Amino acid sequence: MLFTKALILGIGLIGSSLARNLKEKNIVQTLAVYDKNKENLDKSKKLALADIYTDNIKEGVEDADIIIFATPVCSFGELAKEVAKYVKAGTIISDVGSVKQYSLQEIEKYLNKEKKVIVVGGHPVAGTEKSGPENGFSSLFKGRWCILTPDENSTPEAIAKLTEMWEECGMKVDTMDMAHHDKVMAAVSHLPQLIAYSIVGTVADLEGYEHKEIIKYSAGGFRDFTRIAGSDPTMWRDIFLTNKQTVLELIQRFIEDLIALERNIRWDEGDKMFDLFKRTQKIRKDVIEAKQDQPEHEKRIMEEMQK
Amino acid sequence: MLFTKALILGIGLIGSSLARNLKEKNIVQTLAVYDKNKENLDKSKKLALADIYTDNIKEGVEDADIIIFATPVCSFGELAKEVAKYVKAGTIISDVGSVKQYSLQEIEKYLNKEKKVIVVGGHPVAGTEKSGPENGFSSLFKGRWCILTPDENSTPEAIAKLTEMWEECGMKVDTMDMAHHDKVMAAVSHLPQLIAYSIVGTVADLEGYEHKEIIKYSAGGFRDFTRIAGSDPTMWRDIFLTNKQTVLELIQRFIEDLIALERNIRWDEGDKMFDLFKRTQKIRKDVIEAKQDQPEHEKRIMEEMQK
User: Within its chain, how far is the Cα of A55 from the centroid?
Assistant: First the structure.
């Protein structure tokens, strides 16, 4: 057993998928899950995801040797304040947040003023557009990357334990500077997500179209964006607000490039468009070669999602 | 048998998927495929997709009672000119193009000055990001919509035959005014595709990032956009150039909405973002309820793509 008592704060898609792994693979002796949402706790209980289900921070935190924040990022500060009251010295504190500078700053500020606990940021880069404990599944993490972002207060032992935990979940583990993490994620995740939300809004709002028609023919491409834009609103709002500067900069870049493309269309510059489309096709090939989009894996995820 | 001799012009993803259906379901007696690309013809021959494989328009057109344009839209005019030389009176002319006003205008102008043939525009709204005859498969059309855009020269008989043909392929068939078709497709297909190309270009061009890193963590969301942006460059260039005005208008709408969202982030207007994200989540539900995104169907497509 890697841990005696683990506490997962927030039992949503990621929290519940982690819970499944911790139990199935005997990574912890006792697993506690905390959620302020009664419905999520009830669902988790029905699914037998843990040993302790609570909306009482004290009950969850007491005697835990690892605590993982898995709530939307903006709630980290408030939760950390509460956790600080009951946490024992030496406990490993980690998280699954998609923005690392903000979330770790909040944790350190409210929970670790006296350097009593050991903080190691974590971000398992995996997910589906669904949310809630009923939509998690244990193979969600398989073959994906988990990024740890240790700082000067992280210990090698804690990093090793977290590495082992995520590897047991099927992940490949990498470490990264947290500022760099936030920059990379803004590009590969936050900007694409924002664009998906934005375009679904635009298309839905067009006048002179019937909503029914848009939905009916959504297989033309729109559908794929609705899938992405079906993701958890609270989680994403928090990500955009807490990785603000980088996201804002990337939006500007994107708009510049889109306007250049708009100009290509207006002036019939087919060659320039063709060159870009050839480049993006090559990037697609790189993604496939890096095994980051495998039909085999997607199929498995879809099977899980159908259950 | 619905037709005696069918000719498919262009044996790419859609052309070859249609060919598979026409043969497997005994919809035609003789199937000819024309392509100016020798490689595509050779691949089709190997796959036994047709009875006649030719890069000679005359050979393909002679005695055909149905001809289907399945090349990129900008080639329609030139091809129509050639087809006109050999086509017999009464032949049904249709196509699979994603832009209907431009393509039918080209066909009518070059091929049907004397109203000798019967033109009925068609658009099977189906596809994957792959191209070429080796990537087609017969169940591609199953459960999807095919839009026919008849005009004053289309006959009820021709419309009925095309309807039957696409229904045999597994499609649901709808008719629509061609201007309205181009407007709806700009929203549900052309704009989303353009945005995907654009964002993949933006992210790939960012300085201060390693290309490898972007690819490695692409499962964060970027990956889904690369899938869309891996689509055929020629086909899409032609679509943007020939549905220009509508696409340009929608780009402007999209940029406006994106800038509004950018402003929400800058001024910490989390509530406004949350409202939009809730709305897009609802639209996602509508798409699923309309059965336009079914894991079962996607799974089948992925299985076909793996073969």
Answer: 22
CATH of the domain at A62: 3.40.50.720
pLDDT, residue A307, reads: 55
The pLDDT score that the predictor gives to residue A294 is 63
* Cα(B155)–Cα(B299) distance, integer angstroms: 39
**Tally of residues, chain A:** 307
Interchain pair B265, A247: CB under 8 A: yes
Residues paired with residue B255 on neighbouring β-strands, in sequence order: none
Q: How far is A29 from chain B (nearest CA, A)?
A: 31
The pLDDT value recorded for residue B261 is 98
Chain B residues touching A147 at Cβ < 8 A: 217
Does one domain contain both B53 and B24?
A: yes
The whole-angstrom separation of Cα A254 and Cα A224 is: 20
Angle at B292 between CA A262 and CA B231, to 5 degrees: 40
Asked if B270 has any chain A CB less than 8 Å from its own CB, the reply is: yes
* Tally of structural domains, chain B: 2
pTM over the 0.95 mark: no
Is there a single domain that holds both residue B194 and residue B274?
Answer: yes
Cross-chain CB nearest to A237 (options B221, B252, B270): B270
Same domain, A148 and A189: no
d(CA B80, CA B44): 23
Q: Are B172 and B142 in contact (CB under 8 A)?
A: no
A277 and B CB contact within 8 Å: yes
> Which residues touch A165 (CB under 8 Å, ≥6 apart)?
A2, A3, A22, A27, A66
Q: Residues B154, B200: one domain?
A: no
Residues A213 and A190 reside in one and the same domain: yes
With contacts defined as CB-CB under 8 Å, which chain B residues touch A278? 233
The residue segments making up the domain with residue B51 are 3-176
Quick check: B259 contacting A, CB < 8 Å? yes
Per residue in B47-97, pLDDT (tens digit) is: 999 999 999 999 999 999 999 999 999 999 999 999 999 999 999 999 999
Query: Strand, helix or coil at A53?
Result: strand
pLDDT, tens digit, 9 for 90 and up, residues A70-119: 999 999 999 999 999 999 999 999 999 999 999 999 999 999 998 899 99
**Cβ neighbours of A272 in B, within 8 Å:** none
Count of other CB atoms within 10 angstroms of residue A24:
11
Chain pair A-B, CB pairs under 8 angstroms = 328
Give phi and psi for A104, each to the nearest 5: -75, -30
A204-216: pLDDT as tens digits:
988 877 888 999 8
